[in-house]
Structure formats: structure tokens, C-alpha cells
DNA sequence: ACCTTAATTGGATTGATTCCGTTTTGTAAA
DNA sequence: TTTACAAAACGGAATCAATCCAATTAAGGT
């Protein structure tokens, strides 16, 4: 999934092309790590000083619905990253300092299938948290 | 782990015994499902009308630190339940309507061990979400 | 009973997220 | 290329969970 594919996805679902949306995707794409809404806003305001929080949240919500970004939450804040692979389902090891990830190819649900009764399964979450090599020590996280 | 053990844990760590703390544990114990701070407050105010949010949050935070309750988060709200078993590590299938759980005995970390390099692991989360038998359909969740 | 300190209160504050009326902009039709 | 209309963005207010704080109350040891 690249920028063009994502923009096509927007168009296919009747959303308009705007330079703000393109920049937002650009940011997610080049950072390729989990970002909070505030981090996205800060980066976007370098190009669009008056940009509103509402624009960030509205577009993130659209992006998430279309599968362009995927979200999670830690330290009481939601974070989002470019959906790294739309074909194969997998999970992540996440650095809680800088939001960078490593992939876990296995999904524990495969071992669970058939197990749960009396529950209509709607989703699952498997994440490993830690500190990446660049962030360990006292120094500020390198992005 | 029962009420007495939990109260002993408090005492052992130098916290005072109060009827509010006992009631709070009582509630977690008899509900044995995930509760939000607001739900705990509402139930406690039946006995202590003037009870403050701060008391709920402060005590939850102490309970979590001592391992008396365990917390998670969904729909943008933190929730807590009595720590169901202090000896064996396991995970849960959670009903996102009523907060009741079923146990998953396996932990996917066992299969991962040895895998991750360049990451100092600090924690992990494996949860399956769904709707329990009592909550499915249109009717209100039965607690 | 008294003293010291922790616990609780109640109200203010923070901070993330959502909401909303107004203005601007993208896009398709004329 | 203009025009028209709906969607997007703006800016600021509102919401809501969670935290903070100064003043009061209560627990537990002496
Ligand atoms: Mn990935
Ligand atoms: Mn359990
Ligand atoms: Zn890192
Ligand atoms: Zn349920």
C-alpha cells in the first residue's frame, strides 16, 4: 500500500482530494510509526499553520474506517500508524517511547479457533510493549 | 484471593483500613467483571452519597499497584476487575457490553520467547472482545 | 483521649476528543 | 470557464475521563 493506493481508496469512497489529506498520509507513510493526533497536528502545522484539530480527527477517523491507518492506545492516548499490510493479518511489538514497531508474524487467534463458546467474537488485540534500541537509556527518543 | 487476603495486602503495605475500601473491594469481588470508575462510584454512592471521584481513582490506583485489581481499556475508558488469580498468568475474552469475562488459559508470549531482539519487553496484552450470551440481542445487558 | 498522618471531600483543572455554526474549497454540471 | 452544491476545514466551545489541590475528617498508634 502506497500513497497513490490510499488516495484512490479515498476517491473510490467518494471522499474529496485535498492537499491536507495528502500531507497527512505523507506523514503517516514516512514516519511509519504510531502517532498521536497531537503529533500529526504539530507536523501538519509546519505546512498549514492554522490547521484545526477537527480536521486531524475527522480525517484520521475516515482513514481508519477505510483501513488506511490502524489505531491503538497506550498511556491514555489513541495513536495511529499507516496500515502496514492490508493483506496479511499480523501483530506488533511497539516501542512506547517513539511508537515504532516490529512485526509479529503469528496471530494467537489461530490457536484459539473453535475454543470460545457463548461469546460472539468481535475482535481481538495482541500487542507486545517495550523500548526499542534507539530509545533505551536516558536520552530522548530518536524519531 | 478473597476479600480478607486483599485487606491484608493493604495493611501489609501500610495503607489504612477504611469502610470505603472494603466496600470497593466488595463491589469488585461480587461483580467479578470489568467496571469503569463511574460504575464503581455509582454503586458506592448508594452507601456513601457524598463519595468523591478522587477517592475512587486513588483507591483503584492503589489496588492496581498491589495487584488487587487488574485494568484494561475499551471504548476510550479504563476499566478494572478483581484480579482473578494471582498465581497463574492468563488472558481474557471480554464482553464489551457488560464487562464479564471468560478465561483463556494460554498465553501467546510462550510461543514468542526468544524471538524479539532490539527490544526491551515491558509488557504485553492479549484480549479477545465480543458479546456474551446474556448481552446478545437488543435487550439491555444483564449484570 | 490525643496526636500524627493518611484518607476523603468538593471543587477546580487538565487534556484528549467531539461538536457545531460559519467559511472555504473541491468537483461536477452547465 | 463559470456556477452550484456538498464536503471539508476553521475556530472555538463543549464534553468527559482523569488528575490535582487546599481544607476537613478519620484511622490507628501512643
Ligand atoms: Mn506491521
Ligand atoms: Mn481470569
Ligand atoms: Zn523507540
Ligand atoms: Zn455481556
From TrEMBL, chains A, B:
Q: Could you say which residues bind Zn(2+) here? A: 95, 98, 132, 135
The answer to whether the entry has keyword Transcription regulation is: yes
Co-factor binding comment: Binds 1 zinc ion per subunit. Binds 1 Mn(2+) or Fe(2+) ion per subunit.
What Pfam family is a match for this entry?
Answer: FUR
Q: Which GO terms describe its biological process?
A: negative regulation of DNA-templated transcription; regulation of secondary metabolite biosynthetic process
Q: In which residues is Fe cation bound?
A: 89, 124
- Keywords for this entry? Cytoplasm, DNA-binding, Iron, Metal-binding, Repressor, Transcription, Transcription regulation, Zinc
Could you cite one Gene Ontology molecular function of this protein? zinc ion binding
**Major location category of this protein:** cytoplasm
Q: What Gene Ontology terms describe where this protein resides (cellular component)?
A: cytoplasm
Record-linked InterPro entries: FUR, Fur_C, WH-like_DNA-bd_sf, WH_DNA-bd_sf
Domain of life of the organism in this record? Bacteria
List required co-factors: Zn(2+); Mn(2+); Fe(2+)
Compartment(s) where it occurs, according to its Swiss-Prot or TrEMBL record: Cytoplasm
Q: Does the keyword Translocase apply?
A: no
Q: Which family does it belong to?
A: Belongs to the Fur family.
What is the official name of this protein in its record? Transcriptional repressor
State the organism of origin.
Thermoactinomyces mirandus
Amino acid at each position: 500500500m502506497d500513497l497513490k493506493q490510499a488516495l484512490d481508496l479515498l476517491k473510490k469512497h467518494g471522499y474529496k482530494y485535498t492537499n491536507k489529506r495528502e500531507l497527512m498520509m505523507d506523514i503517516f507513510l514516512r514516519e511509519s510509526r504510531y502517532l498521536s493526533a497531537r503529533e500529526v497536528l504539530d507536523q501538519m502545522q509546519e505546512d498549514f499553520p492554522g490547521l484545526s484539530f477537527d480536521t486531524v480527527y475527522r480525517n484520521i477517523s475516515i482513514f481508519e474506517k477505510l483501513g488506511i491507518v490502524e489505531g491503538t492506545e497506550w498511556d491514555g492516548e489513541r495513536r495511529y500508524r499507516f496500515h502496514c499490510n492490508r493483506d496479511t493479518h499480523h501483530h506488533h511489538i511497539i516501542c512506547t517511547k517513539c511508537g515504532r514497531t516490529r512485526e509479529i508474524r503469528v496471530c494467537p487467534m489461530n490457536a484459539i479457533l473453535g475454543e470460545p463458546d457463548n461469546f460472539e467474537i468481535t475482535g481481538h488485540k495482541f500487542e507486545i510493549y517495550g523500548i526499542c534500541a534507539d530509545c533505551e537509556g536516558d536520552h530522548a527518543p530518536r524519531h
